[in-house]
Design brief:
This protein is α+β, with helices and mostly antiparallel strands. The chain has three domains: about 170 residues, PAS domain (Beta-Lactamase); about 130 residues, Beta-Lactamase (2-Layer Sandwich), CATH 3.30.450.20; about 130 residues, 2-Layer Sandwich (Beta-Lactamase), CATH 3.30.450. Helices cover about 30% and strands about 25% of the residues. Strands 6-5-9-8-7 form a five-stranded antiparallel sheet, sandwiched between helices. Strand 8 and strand 9 form a beta hairpin. The chain starts with a helix and ends with a strand.
Length: about 450
């Protein structure tokens, strides 16, 4: 059996296990994971939205491992490892040209932006626009290839790189998106910050900051609160921690060595966005928990943000492992100096090389964000990854490069874990400059 067949077989097994029933979220409706044979085609009924997300993530990782051409070939097969009856993958470029569809091979190579559902909704255009944002959901009406009936459908869309995106969907009239999906959390935080920005616009910065600091005010909910700071890192609003008001927290560091203050200022200077850290949760007896925050600058004197603690995300990394991580990156940088860039890149890309440990492997970028080395996702090598977003909306490559240029540093992001069946998990990355145009790094995942 050749290498490609082995990989496809492994993915087939993985996809099957992803469809096994799991505990359903309280915000979801219906049962999950029933596998129903319909003639000779496997139809998966009542697949959860979380299953759908994992299915699309699995397909994305397959493309990142095998490359675009091999992935598109597999996605287009009706008997392929990513076609499970009415659950299947389709792919388009950002111009709207179809690249793969197992049930509509006649779409291949054709621009389908004008394709509409029975209500007149341009679903491909909507999916393309969602892919520009990294990922998201689109509702529409579409024919079920198993039943032949037009049904409501929820698609999950994911950007692969600057050139193309893929998606899959589930059918059913009662499908809804749970509030605990990364996309839902991302949209909630953006919306909460937008309400705060609207208040600033209407009432002015001084009155807005005063209201943001009120723990009983309208910008404090059970999920989050609004905070604010200026472009020097001085805290202006923090309703549950009044002793921080007026203090400069540019040098604030979390328990894993992530420079919270510096990172939020870098994100603000880039126009705003998401960043992650471990922080006290005032709604959980100030327990330290992983937190996702979104910030947006109003002016040099005011940057507004809101965050959400995610207690189910394990974010504990021992000092011993963090020290080992720094040491590995520094050894990789030394290898570059001793053997030269070309030989080093070759070694970093070798899955059997001295720097390729599944639990802590070395990767490399140039200063423009082009990936130069990743031994376990070779399909990404040679591509610009600067605009990559992880599930919660962070641009990890931007932060990894920025940290390296500042002399080295840690940052969190979500990425496929090759030691954990390529599941997308929280990762703590560390990067340094190896030479003027070469960033080297490595990362660790939480111990399972």
């Amino acid at each position: 059996m050749n290498r490609r067949c082995i990989i496809i077989s492994l993915f087939l097994i993985l996809v099957f296990f992803l469809m096994v029933p799991v505990s359903s979220s309280s915000t979801e409706t219906g049962s999950q994971g029933d596998l129903v044979w319909s003639g000779t085609v496997l139809s998966i009924r009542n697949v959860s939205v979380h299953d759908l997300i994992r299915f699309v993530e699995t397909a994305t990782v397959y493309a990142e491992r095998e490359g675009k051409d091999a992935a598109l070939h597999e996605f287009a097969l009706q008997n392929g490892s990513f076609t499970r009856g009415d659950l299947y993958i389709w792919a388009y470029d950002f111009e709207g040209v179809n690249l793969a569809h197992p049930w509509h091979p006649e779409f291949s190579g054709k621009n389908k932006l004008d394709l509409t559902d029975p209500t007149g909704f341009h679903m491909i255009t909507a999916m393309r626009d969602m892919a520009f944002n990294g990922s998201g959901f689109v509702w529409y009406q579409y024919e079920n290839p198993v039943s032949g009936v037009i049904e409501p459908k929820l698609a999950y869309v994911k950007r692969v790189d600057d050139t193309w995106w893929l998606a899959s969907g589930i059918y059913g009239p009662n499908v809804s998106v749970p509030q605990d999906t990364p996309d839902s959390i991302r949209d909630f935080l953006i919306g909460h910050v937008q309400k705060a920005l609207d208040y600033v616009q209407e009432h002015g910065e001084e009155d807005a900051v005063a209201l943001f600091n009120d723990p009983s005010g309208p910008f404090v909910t059970n999920e989050t609160y609004v905070f604010a700071f200026d472009n020097t890192g001085t805290t202006l609003a923090m309703p549950f921690y009044p002793d921080t008001i007026g203090k400069n927290e540019r040098d604030k560091v979390d328990v894993n060595g992530v420079l919270i203050g510096e990172e939020k200022l870098m994100v603000a200077a880039d126009g705003g966005g998401f960043f992650y850290y471990v922080f006290e949760n005032p709604h959980a007896q100030n327990a330290s928990q992983f937190k996702v925050s979104f910030i947006h600058p109003v002016s040099d004197s005011l940057i507004v943000g809101a965050g959400m603690n995610l207690p189910d995300v394990h974010a504990s990394f021992s000092e011993k492992r963090r020290v080992a991580l720094i040491s590995k990156v520094q050894k990789a940088a030394a290898f570059v100096q001793e053997h030269g860039k070309e030989a080093a890149i070759k070694e970093f890309n070798d899955p059997n090389g001295s720097f390729s440990d599944r639990e802590m492997f070395v990767f490399a970028f140039d200063s423009n964000g082009t990936l130069l080395a990743n031994p376990y996702l070779p399909g990404l090598v040679g591509q610009s990854r600067l605009q990559d977003r992880d599930p919660y909306g962070k641009y990890p490559v931007k932060q990894l490069i920025w940290n390296a240029k500042q002399g080295g540093g840690f940052t969190y992001y979500f990425f496929a874990d090759p030691a954990f069946e390529y599941a997308v998990r929280l990762k703590l990355g560390y990067t340094e400059m190896a030479e003027d145009d070469l960033i080297v790094g490595a990362g660790i995942f939480p111990e399972s």
